[in-house]
Amino acid sequence: MTLTNASQVPFVDLSSQHQPIQAELMATVQAVLDQGDFILGKALSEFETAFAAACQVEYGIGVACGTDAIALGLQACGIEAGDEVILPANTFVATLIGILRAGAKPILVDCDPTTALIDLAAAEAAITPQTKAIVPVHLYGQMVSPSALRQLAQRHGLIIFEDAAQAHLAEREGDRAGSVGTAAAFSFYPSKNLGALGDGGILVTSTATVAEKARSLRNYGATRKYFHTEAGGTNSRLDTLQAAALQIKLPYLEQWNQARYQAAQYYHQRLQQLEDFGVFPIVNQAGTGHVYHLFVVRLTAVSDRQPLQSALAAQGIQTGIHYPLPCHLQPAFRDLGYSAGEFPQAERLCEEILSLPMYPGLTFAQIDRVVDALQAQLESAKPASRQPLKASP
Ligand SMILES: *Cc1c(COP(=O)(O)O)cnc(C)c1O
């Protein structure tokens, strides 16, 4: 671990990731230029095969973004208008948008406040005869328990469709993210654990019929050129150029995830000293299988995070909030009929969470700076803004 550049702590640093492999990336871009197969080209099918294998599933279908992987993936699994699909209230809105675009009715449920993952008891309570699928979100890089998911799905005959956009190569109970249910969606948004040089996504599945239907849906619903069998089709293909860049980056993913894990371990160790200030990291129940897309803490004794974030930013330390408003309180989705107070754990979590810098290449010295600055800030906070505190649940 070096001390260089420890004074600035960006939230993510993509240039440090790309700099060591720049020559490889440039060469692969040149190869696609030479080949000229920009749409559904050779590098795309090669990457689809490689990524599916990394997820321990049979098929990969590259699409334009993670949101499309959810929408087209659910359609490919047979989800249609009138079907109810369960998802957690505390996710990125893309999960909800994907479900809506598949034509289904989203059913939001609350989360476990210590792990921030979907509360499966709440999910079970929300099941009706119309419920067709559950979309667990492996939030922040930690998988929802595969065994608990499978038991729930089996009891009620539900399709499991994983939103694995934050969980590339994550594992739990011996299962890889993407291999738990009928199909799964990944995003290659640049700052995800595996990111493209732009937008991208993939659907993975081991079910041949689902793969076949998804391939058609992403390509105008065509099964062969100018012969269209799926009315729900659209244009959503992962560019050959993006697939080529992703193919270069894929072999590094495991070591990048390991670097994230080591950074997280050091955060956990250092943050113990901030428990008295009400700082509690989101609990890891997945052990070494957690891929820490984000490192999130709960600030249970801070009533307003904004001054804290500003003070850290003034010292060159960037933080984020993932996400400040749960899905059911977003103005765009008022029509779904939910109201404030409906999902108390998700709502409270949204008010407490703070995402600290996390990326492969983040040094222990930088983590020290973050934790020390956070501590100094909490110590200087006026007692009035701190509520008396009992430890986390
Ligand atoms: C990033 C993300 C998505 C959407 O992926 P895009 O590629 O941005 O469309 C979906 N769900 C979750 C949980 C995400 O983090």
From TrEMBL:
Pfam entry (one): DegT_DnrJ_EryC1
GO MF annotation: an example: transaminase activity
Keyword line: Aminotransferase, Pyridoxal phosphate, Transferase
Zinc as UniProt keyword: no
InterPro entries, sorted: DegT/StrS_aminotransferase, PyrdxlP-dep_Trfase, PyrdxlP-dep_Trfase_major, PyrdxlP-dep_Trfase_small
Gene3D superfamilies assigned to the protein according to its UniProt record, in alphabetical order: Aspartate Aminotransferase, domain 1, Type I PLP-dependent aspartate aminotransferase-like (Major domain)
UniProt key word Transferase: yes
Family membership: Belongs to the DegT/DnrJ/EryC1 family.
Protein name in the entry: DegT/DnrJ/EryC1/StrS family aminotransferase
Organism name: Almyronema epifaneia S1
Lineage: Bacteria, Bacillati, Cyanobacteriota, Cyanophyceae, Nodosilineales
